[in-house]
Amino acid sequence: MYPGLVHAHSGLRWIALILLIVAVITAIAKWQGRSGYTDGNRKLYLFTLISVHTQLLIGLLLFFISPKVNFSMMGEKIYRFYTAEHTVGMLIAIVLITIGYSKSKRADDATTKQRLIGVFYGIGLLLILASIPWPFRIPGAGWF
User: What is the model's pTM?
Assistant: First the structure.
């Protein structure tokens, strides 16, 4: 079960990243272009939110069963990364994305909706990119 969850979590990150990048670019372009908030935008932002929450659920399962999460070995880089850095960075990013989506739903005008999505999803994207175990950063991490 563990290897399947790891592969699912690693593979689905690409879907979440692509959706986040498209959502941020769309929101900033619409915000700067002052165009309206369309139903297609709302669906894109919702699917992005769903994808990061799916990653959160799989990640929480992995947190409790992974041998790489070990509080007693925080002195070693790989254990510290998976136990603290990756977990905290991703949680903060997902909270920001969720707040941005919720605030944009309550905003009155289309420009404010796009600005909120662009800012919150953008900060979340940067945190996610910084918290992913990239192969060039963490030994033994893979692209998928």
Answer: 0.90
